[in-house]
Amino acid sequence: MPVYQAVILALVQALTEFLPVSSTAHLTLFPWLLHWQDPGLAFDVALHAGTLVAVLLYFFKDWLTLALCGLGFKYPAAAPAEEVAQHRRFFWYMVVGTIPGGILGALFEHQIEEHFRAPFVISASMIVVGLVMWWADSRSRLARPLAQSNMGDAVTIGTAQALALCPGVSRSGITITTGLFRGFTREAATRFSFLLSAPLIAGAVVSHLPKLMKLHKAGGLDLPVSTLFLSIAVSGIAGYFVIAFFLRYLQTRTLRVFVVYRLVVGVGILVWAVVQAGR
Q1: Which range marks the domain in which residue 259 is found?
Q2: Is the pLDDT assigned to residue 87 strictly greater than 60?
Q3: 186 near 265, Cβ under 8 Å?
Q4: pTM, to two decimals
């Protein structure tokens, strides 16, 4: 793969992993539409490692506080007991919320990879989730801050996150939408979504590392290591700024532009797939 293709796909990953438009769909469609060679597992792992770095760096203080409080420490030392207890509860909400996606990913990842990366599936997912997102964005109470989250939110949003295994659904799209249905503000739903994404992205990266290392030792790695590290850097840096932008954006704006984008792209994919099938 040429370096410019790696950089473009890394930017696509950074934009679409955190914006509610589906990174899997875009990374599947870009090589198809541009007739690029499939970069393979190694590149996919590199891109996800980059976005993992982005979300961990952006929410570093949050994760440090949550992890230390969740494991029984008082952090910060001067924090009121009620605040520490709230952080402790939220840490375990994140743990519980990760379980549905982890289980379904372990059970069905290969089947989804083989059978669901089809244009008609991606198109349907883009359109359906876009319409549901519009409904949630226009009907939600938008009243609850993140501090009012509970175990029910973690289970519901975590279960919804598992649906993102299907290309076109979008991890951030489905979890933010579910958060809105739970009454969160747009910013709170998005923060919940991004914090919840980190453990699953980390799990996906770690689970594929042994295969990647084995492939490298066997001399079967098609991409230069330098290209992989460049992809991680580009995806991570761009992803960090996308997170910052999106959280600020939702403080004063709706998700309408992303709904319209999903519908336009979904219909475009459907038309393209029908034309290709008729040839």
Answers
A1: 3-277
A2: yes
A3: no
A4: 0.89
